[in-house]
Amino acid sequence: MHKVNMSSFQLYVLLFITMNGTGLLTAPGLLARMAGASSWMAPFLAMPVGLVAIWLAVKLNRQFPEDNLVGIAEKVAGPVAGRALSLLYLFYMLSSTGFVLRQFSDFLTNSFLMRTPGTVVSACLLLVGGYAVKQGPELLGRLGTMFLPIFISLSLLVCLPMLWNAHIRYALPLGSAGWESVLSGAYALQLWFPMMTFASFYLPYVGDKRKALAGGIWMVVVNTIWFACTNLFALVVLGPAASGFNYPIMTIVRQVQLSEFVEHIDALVMMGWVLAFFVRIVVCLFGAAVGTARWLGLPNYRPLVYPLAWLLVIVSQWGLRNTQYIPNSTGALCMFYLANAIALPSVLLLLSLLRRVNDRSGETTPAGPS
Amino acid sequence: MVSKITLYWLLLIVAIVVLWHDWRGIKGRNTALAYSAMYAISLVISFIVVYDRRFPGPVLVLNKLFEHLNRLLFR
């Protein structure tokens, strides 16, 4: 039995920062390009996927409280098929995090550390991240709750002074870009919502499991509102120009002045972003390390942390000329993420339910005459 | 611009330092085997990526798998 290391609140704080770290940076530009003035509505259409993802993770954990997705796949689908399926999921975790790592290093090297190679930035982040992951889920849970107030207060620091420059007419009329565009935007948000299934790797360490589902639903709702507010904010401040920026919020931050004598708060906001990216990468690195250790049948995940971190740095560079790849392949990536984070756990849940029904009918069948 | 030879040397030095740091904590034959295999794979791929960054990788596989759907939805 796993030692209880974190509460469900800590888990969902981690997942909240995980989603919003990259979401706050790139989602407003991506959605503005796709859905124009209606971009802020897209998160509400994307929300059901997040709810399904968290429901799947919690439901699977209730059936196998001591195991993560990799172990569950092996138990439900058998050693060969289960390992093949979980390998796909591990590949999804590593590739999605590799892309995020590349976004992070490109963002930093384009905006601030212009003479530092991106690989060095990524490697430094993973060196610290690997150390944090080796300390276990308890430390990760505490990191999340420690970073959350910083993340929220920095976000408010950006938003509040710029609200005077907002023009609500940029977001009107409702649905002006067409509902097809809003649906496309909601589909693009599947780069973020399916990662709720990462919870599967933490739930075995969570103490108050009864609150897990309700907490998860609340977190998805809060996340959706946060996404919608961020998009609306970028839209009402920048107007149609929001679609022309890769990082609209960063563009807004650069214009912020506090009382006409505090300027360049972008460096401060960057600190918040580094924390959020750090959490995003650490959350996934822990999941990948625990999952790989389970896949290989090892008693401890810790020795695998740095080889996986190394692999992440490679994935972030391998075949990617720049992060422009990501907007160009949103459709392909979303489909891949949905297949791994929604379809795969759904199949596992279905198989486990069928097995349970089979086992029950086997138990209740009366013995034949001897 | 740093030359590839320098990058290879740098990679080797980092690999040796990380290996030296990690190896002391590894217990059990299976763990050592898994660690070595993963480490070797990572090192070989990083040498290849340093040689040619555009070497076909996971991105290409994903694009090939889902490009038709991508075209249908987003073009």
From TrEMBL, chain A:
<keyword id="KW-0812">Transmembrane</keyword>
<dbReference type="InterPro" id="IPR004761">
    <property type="entry name" value="Spore_GerAB"/>
</dbReference>
<keyword id="KW-0813">Transport</keyword>
<feature type="transmembrane region" description="Helical">
    <location>
        <begin position="217"/>
        <end position="238"/>
    </location>
</feature>
<feature type="transmembrane region" description="Helical">
    <location>
        <begin position="267"/>
        <end position="291"/>
    </location>
</feature>
<dbReference type="GO" id="GO:0016020">
    <property type="term" value="C:membrane"/>
</dbReference>
<keyword id="KW-0472">Membrane</keyword>
<feature type="transmembrane region" description="Helical">
    <location>
        <begin position="184"/>
        <end position="205"/>
    </location>
</feature>
<feature type="transmembrane region" description="Helical">
    <location>
        <begin position="145"/>
        <end position="164"/>
    </location>
</feature>
<feature type="transmembrane region" description="Helical">
    <location>
        <begin position="335"/>
        <end position="354"/>
    </location>
</feature>
<feature type="transmembrane region" description="Helical">
    <location>
        <begin position="37"/>
        <end position="58"/>
    </location>
</feature>
<comment type="similarity">
    <text>Belongs to the amino acid-polyamine-organocation (APC) superfamily. Spore germination protein (SGP) (TC 2.A.3.9) family.</text>
</comment>
<dbReference type="Pfam" id="PF03845">
    <property type="entry name" value="Spore_permease"/>
</dbReference>
<keyword id="KW-1133">Transmembrane helix</keyword>
<keyword id="KW-0309">Germination</keyword>
<protein>
    <submittedName>
        <fullName>Uncharacterized protein</fullName>
    </submittedName>
</protein>
<feature type="transmembrane region" description="Helical">
    <location>
        <begin position="303"/>
        <end position="320"/>
    </location>
</feature>
<feature type="transmembrane region" description="Helical">
    <location>
        <begin position="70"/>
        <end position="92"/>
    </location>
</feature>
<dbReference type="GO" id="GO:0009847">
    <property type="term" value="P:spore germination"/>
</dbReference>
<feature type="transmembrane region" description="Helical">
    <location>
        <begin position="112"/>
        <end position="133"/>
    </location>
</feature>
<feature type="transmembrane region" description="Helical">
    <location>
        <begin position="12"/>
        <end position="31"/>
    </location>
</feature>
Automatic annotation (TrEMBL), chain B:
<keyword id="KW-0472">Membrane</keyword>
<keyword id="KW-0812">Transmembrane</keyword>
<feature type="transmembrane region" description="Helical">
    <location>
        <begin position="6"/>
        <end position="23"/>
    </location>
</feature>
<keyword id="KW-1133">Transmembrane helix</keyword>
<protein>
    <submittedName>
        <fullName>Uncharacterized protein</fullName>
    </submittedName>
</protein>
<feature type="transmembrane region" description="Helical">
    <location>
        <begin position="32"/>
        <end position="51"/>
    </location>
</feature>
